[in-house]
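Give me the fold.
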Amino acid sequence: MREDTTPKIEDFFATFRLRKFTKGQILILNGDETDYVYYLKKGSVKEYDVTYRGDEIILNIFKPPAYFPMSLAINKGPNHYIYEAETDIEIRQAPADEVVAFIRANPEVMYELLSRVYRGIDGLLGRMAQLMAGSAKDRLLYELVLEARRFGTIKKNGSCALDVNEKDLGARAGLSRETVSREMNKLKGEDLIVVRSKGILLKDVVALEKKLGQTI
């Protein structure tokens, strides 16, 4: 069984000052060179790019206990994306060199980080495959299932409540708000989802996966 490295990681970052950001505040801008790593204690942070048309494309969502941007900390160089507080957040900010030294000194932490990276790569590859060959419906289904598997709690009856809206889904799937709304109505008509004021209820995650034709 893999060792739970969360307590060790929390103890390391606990030595650094706790900071609070409100929803919408920018942590890192594209073009910035950052010397820090952020450890997320509360809330969520989105990593995104903006197209020439001004459309927001969400590349990743970080939720506790994530720490980022590790690519910049390890490889150095300028950042190409924007990191923004998706909700009110609490973070600890640690010097990048100290974080890298900590990871190198703790192989089990490095292994856990690699595991996270490869899970993230698998998600990105799946999204790329849907963008290249999937229909709008498949792209939306993929984002719903991926959200459930990464951040949701799937109940015994197979349902899962997601704290996400149509705008977010469109930004992640590269679809317009109108397209997302149209495809969501189709899924509602098939009794697969319920759209609520605080998010979306997936009635049966496995059924959605089968409809998509793959398991994430």
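The helical segments are 6-13, 70-75, 96-105, 107-133, 136-151, 166-173, 177-189, 205-212.
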